[in-house]
Each structure stands twice: as structure tokens, then as C-alpha cells.
Amino acid sequence: MSCTAHGSASFATQCLRIGTACMSSAVNDLNSTVPKRIALINPTKFLGNLLLAGGLIQQLCELCLQHDSELLLVLDESFCDLVGDAWPGARVVYYPRRALSHGVSVDSVRLWLRCVRQIRAFAADLAFTIEEDSVSHRLLHASAARRKVSSTVHRYHWGFDQVLDIPRSGRAPGKEGIWYSYRDVFAALGLPIAAVTTDRSPTVPAYMSLSPPTPDRALLERLATSGLELTQPIAVLHAGASKRYKQWPAQQFVALAVMFAARGYQLVLIGAGQRDSEVNTNIMRALASTGVTCVDLCNRLTLAELASLLRRVEIMVGNDSGPSHLASALGVRGVVLFGPTDLAIWRPLGRQTTTLQHKHLCAPDCTRHHCQQQYICLQSIMPQQVLAALGLNLGLNSDPGLGSTSNTEEK
After folding, report:
1. Does residue 369 contact residue 389 with C-beta atoms inside 8 Å?
2. How does pLDDT run across 341-364, given as a tens digit for each residue?
3. Is 243 exposed, middle or buried (0-12, 13-18, 19+ CB in 10 A)?
4. How does strand 126-128 pair with strand 37-41?
5. What is the DSSP-derived secondary structure letter of residue 18?
6. Alpha-carbon span 283 to 36, nearest angstrom
7. Structural domains in the chain, sorted by start
8. What is residue 147's three-state secondary structure?
9. pLDDT above 90 for 119
């Protein structure tokens, strides 16, 4: 599992060979040879990233089936129940992130080696990454593939046969989204998936296709026991996020929940993990003092169950997070609240999703990790603006079926 470092001259030559010439030849040469054994190593822990890249990965599955090539996907085990059957014809190896997060032990070493052995046994002709994370690149190093390609020239240089220079920011207007960065990796590798070969005509970025089952009897009984009635309009709120700077204030979620309740919506809080649980507990406590009823399903649903529930709700409001992208991918009408994160890169792709962000209030030197104005771009968004984005600012008798179908940034 050793990795071979390339000399500086060789590395520079590799980088110079990427870029427009490589991209152009990949797009135009539709008859280029597709490797017989391809491994995409993508164990991202972020649900939103997987959903944004998943449509392109599904196109890779189709390409491999058409060319009689074998495909191995390496994904995070957390997403098994949600997307396990979403990859026709592909083999899937699941990275055991949860077990490995507890530190080094006999069991964790065994699980790591098992994952690596499965990847190496595939004996890929081409193995590549589309994300910048270290886990993907460590597994790529260990893959034993004949050709190992990193997509991140700015972070991981050594031990690969090729390093792609794919920009993730500062892209051309209209193509700023991360979806385009993912697509350009496939193009640079000469993999003629549909999104690459149709580049001459407008290509609309899209999430992966999901087919969550309808809620089964056990889930329906659990929801009913919680006091939720699926035949009545439901508004789902996700107040958590992977980073503090992505979190809209809990008191704003409380105010918004009260407004939804006044308009006849049942309220549901979702989330996973201790931080989400703490935020939800504070919101539930504040709502109890107002007499508003809310159901807290934090840590009580699998991702597949969450997707099944989202298919049955009318509204989803959340921070820039995986559940918000999931709701957008499922076509749920909703609002996603953005702080200092680059909206142009991470904008949800669903046509029923509206985004709100007050970036115009930020100081010139504001960054995600250093803000002297307490993330005013997010904090200054008012619950009334969320209602307006949903078309629910017409009074207490607003029709729950009335809503926004745009995907815009409020300035």
C-alpha cells in the first residue's frame, strides 16, 4: 500500500497536460475507449455532496453498462439504506466511517483493512476521486489501480499517475455550481457520460434520482404514536447544520414554527447527532411555552425513513445541510437558509426550492471562519421573509398548497 512520489518536473508536466486541451479532447472524442474496470472512490460524509454528484455517478453507471465495463463505487456506509440500490450494475464498497471514528482498535483496523482489500481486489484499470477529502485520497493511494487520478491539484499532489486541476471556485458565470466541477472531472478523464457529451447544448444540473419507499406500517405507527397525522399538512424544520456558521438562530425557528402552526401546519423537527438534538431541545422548550405542539424526530429516523416522510410533507425549511438538499432532491417545496457559504457553488438544484441569503450585508473581509458582524448574512433573515418566499405571507388563512417555485437568492 505504498505510494510513489513523482518528481517536480514530472508533476508540472502532468498539470500542464490537464486544462482546456484535455477537456476539449474528452468532450469531442465520443469514441474514446472506456476502461474496463473503473473505481470511483467517493466516501464523502456529506449527504448534500453525494446528492449533487449522484446524478453524474448514475450516468457513469449507465456508461459502464453500455460499454460492458465494470464499476466499483466506494461510498460512506451512512448512506447505504438511502442510495444502496441507486447504482445499476455497480459494485459498492462501504467505508466504515462510524466505526473508525472511535479511534484505533483491533476492530477498527480490521474494518479498515477489509475495506482496502475489497478495493484492491477489484484491480481497477482507472481509479479516481471527485472530492477534496483526505479519506478518498488515502483509499485511492491504497487502491492498487493501474491508473490513479486525483481531482485536487491544490491539496493532494503525490502518489498519483495524474492530478487534475479542476476549479471549484472562480468559475465562469452560469457554471459556478459544484455540479459543474464534478462534471469536469469526468470530462477530463475522457469518460463520455451524458452530461459531458451533451455539453454543446444546455445541460441542466440535477440531483441523483431517488426512489424512497412509501412509509411502511412500522414507520406509520411510530409517526402516529408521536402525534403526527400524515393526512394533514406538515412543515418540517431542520435547525441543525454541520458548521455553526450555517445555523439560523434557534429563536428564529421558534418564531417561524409559531407562524406555521397558526396557518394550520403540523410541525416536525428533524436532525441527527448530539448538536442537532441540543438545538431541537431548546426549540421544543421554547415552543412549549407558547402552547404550540411540535414533534421532534431527531435521531429517530434512518435516512431512508426521512426520505419517505419528506415525500409526504408540504414544506421544508432548513439550513444549508444534507437534509435540505434531500428535500430539494425529492421536490419538496421549501426554503434553504444560507450564511457565508458560497451560494453559487452549493445552491440546491430543486425547482421547488428557494434560497435566502443576505450576503450584501457582509463586510469586505468577511470569511466563513472570521466574521466581525456575527454572520449577519444569515442572522438578519426574518421568519416573515421565509413565509414570503413560500407564498404564505397572505394572512392566517393562506392556502397550504400555495407556494414559491423559484430558486433565487434574496438581495
Report:
1. no
2. 899 999 999 999 999 998 666 656
3. middle
4. parallel
5. S
6. 53
7. 8-197 (3.40.50.2000), 217-389 (3.40.50.2000)
8. strand
9. yes
**Residue 388, SS3 per DSSP:** helix
Helix, strand, or coil (residue 63):
helix
Q: How far is CA 87 from the centre of its chain?
A: 17
List of residues 6+ apart from 299 with CB closer than 8 A: 271, 272, 273, 276, 277
| pLDDT(310) > 70 | yes
Give which of 313, 314, 220, 326 is closest to 271, Cα–Cα: 326
Note whether 292 and 261 are within 8 A (CB): yes
Question: In sequence order, which residues have a C-beta less than 8 Å from that of residue 137 and are 6 or more positions away?
Answer: 129, 150, 152, 156
Buried b (16+ CB within 10 A) or exposed e, 140-156: bbbbbbeebbbbbbeeb
CB 109 within 8 A of CB 100: no
The span from the CA of 97 to the CA of 191, in Å, is 29
DSSP secondary structure code for residue 165 in this structure? B
**pTM for the whole thing?**
0.86
The C-alpha angle 317, 319, 324, rounded to 5 degrees, equals: 65
Rounded to the nearest angstrom, the gap between the alpha carbon of residue 262 and the centroid of all alpha carbons in its chain is 32
pLDDT for 176: 94
What is the longest distance spanned by two Cα atoms in the chain? 69
DSSP 350-383: -TTEEEE--GGGS-TT--SS--TTSSHHHHT--H
- Indicate the residue type of 23: M
